[in-house]
């Protein structure tokens, strides 16, 4: 009986172990798609990551995906969408297994989909025209708030000096400095101006000790003040005459007309800086508006802008060095997708073997 019980226990243990192994293998088989299963791959985005159907060039994202699919022996078919948002909507409805393209990984999108690790790190950049400045644009800096504020302070200081000269001279020299406050301070300001400019007409001059002390002190102070002020105005005029209509940072776009792709992260970013946003469907439309002077600048993902400029060197365009809203590009999946682990692992292998870098350098300049 005892041997029979031991034999029964051993049988049950072996059966349970074999059943568990079988279940585990079945689960793993479900997690990775079968070779016979055909994946529906959504394609969306702009050059240089995705090219149109009739183009012989594939693009960075497509080439990386096809390298991975070849290594994993995945069978797939492409389904092209007009824009990224349409592709992500189809993914969310269950019509696609994955979306391939320059898909920005954002916290908002993570609420209803999943992403692979980034295969490219991007950022937003500003492109503007290189136009010669008009006469008004050259002299406009002279009417800035800062300069007007400085002139206001100068007039206040001039009035104070004029009042001090009048107080010191009004009793000893009433013929030069009238007793009336307005006339007397005005005469004092006139004396301060001709002293500052070293004109010295000789029509007015202090005769009292305190008047000469005030005038002498003002001479020293005015030399420093006038020199700094003239140098500042001269440098402003020089820089504005040499300048162009380009934009170097995002703060300069406040109140300006800026084109960007509608519903993209760049649109949300521009709203924070109070730019006048013009939404477009694609980058070519945005650059066309910039060329026709319908907008002042274009803000979009840096690699797409760089690729456009690389292929349109005849257009006078300037891309700012400043980078904003750095983000990664990845492949998008449904929330319950079983592909993510294998895609991430293959992406790492692809990057470690420098295959990803080779593809990127084929489309973008090495310096970028």
TrEMBL record:
- Entry's localization field: Membrane
**Has keyword Transferase?**
no
Q: How does it sit in the membrane?
A: Multi-pass membrane protein
SUPFAM superfamilies reported for this sequence = Periplasmic binding protein-like II, Voltage-gated potassium channels
Main localization of the protein described in the UniProt heading? membrane
Where are the bilayer-spanning segments? 147-168, 180-201, 213-234
Q: Which residues form the Solute-binding protein family 3/N-terminal domain?
A: 38-367
Q: Name one GO cellular component term.
A: membrane
Identify a single GO molecular function assigned to this protein.
Answer: ligand-gated monoatomic ion channel activity
State the name under which the record lists this protein. Transporter substrate-binding domain-containing protein
Q: Where would I find the Ionotropic glutamate receptor C-terminal domain in this sequence?
A: 38-366
- Among its keywords, does the record have Lyase? no
Sorted alphabetically, which Pfam families does this protein's record hold? Answer: Lig_chan, SBP_bac_3
- Keywords of this entry: Glycoprotein, Ion channel, Ion transport, Membrane, Receptor, Signal, Transmembrane, Transmembrane helix, Transport
Using the record, list the residue span of the signal peptide; answer none if the entry has no such feature.
1-22
């Amino acid at each position: 009986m005892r041997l029979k019980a031991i034999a029964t226990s051993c049988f049950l243990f072996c059966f349970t172990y074999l059943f568990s192994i079988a279940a585990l293998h079945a689960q793993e088989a479900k997690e990775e798609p079968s070779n016979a299963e055909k994946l529906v791959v959504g394609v969306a985005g702009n050059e240089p990551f995705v090219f149109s159907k009739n183009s012989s060039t594939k693009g960075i994202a497509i080439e990386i995906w096809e390298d991975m699919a070849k290594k994993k022996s995945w069978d797939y078919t492409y389904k092209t969408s007009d824009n990224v948002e349409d592709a992500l909507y189809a993914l969310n409805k269950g019509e696609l297994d994955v979306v391939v393209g320059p898909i920005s990984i954002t916290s908002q999108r993570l609420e209803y989909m999943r992403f692979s690790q980034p295969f490219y790190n991007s950022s937003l950049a500003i492109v503007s025209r290189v136009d010669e400045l008009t006469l008004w644009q050259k002299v406009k800096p002279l009417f800035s708030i800062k300069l007007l504020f400085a002139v206001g302070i100068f007039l206040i200081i001039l009035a104070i000096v004029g009042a001090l000269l009048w107080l010191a001279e009004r009793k000893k020299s009433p013929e030069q400095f009238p007793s009336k406050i307005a006339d007397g301070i005005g005469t004092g300001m006139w004396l301060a101006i001709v002293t500052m400019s070293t004109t010295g007409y000789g029509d007015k001059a202090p005769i009292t000790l305190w008047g000469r002390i005030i005038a002498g002190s003002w001479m020293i102070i005015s030399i420093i003040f006038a020199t700094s002020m003239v140098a500042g105005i001269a440098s402003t005029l020089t820089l504005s005459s040499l300048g162009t209509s380009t934009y170097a940072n995002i703060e300069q776009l406040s109140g300006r007309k800026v084109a960007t792709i509608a519903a993209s992260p760049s649109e949300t970013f521009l709203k924070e800086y109070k730019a006048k946003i013009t939404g477009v469907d694609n980058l070519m439309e945005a650059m066309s508006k910039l060329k026709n002077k319908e907008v002042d600048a274009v803000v979009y993902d840096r690699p797409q802008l760089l690729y456009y400029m690389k292929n349109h060197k005849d257009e006078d365009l300037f891309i700012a060095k400043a980078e904003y809203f750095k983000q990664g590009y990845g492949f998008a999946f449904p929330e319950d997708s079983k592909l993510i682990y294998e895609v991430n692992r293959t992406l790492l292998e692809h990057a470690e073997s420098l295959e990803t870098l080779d593809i990127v350098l084929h489309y973008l300049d090495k310096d970028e």
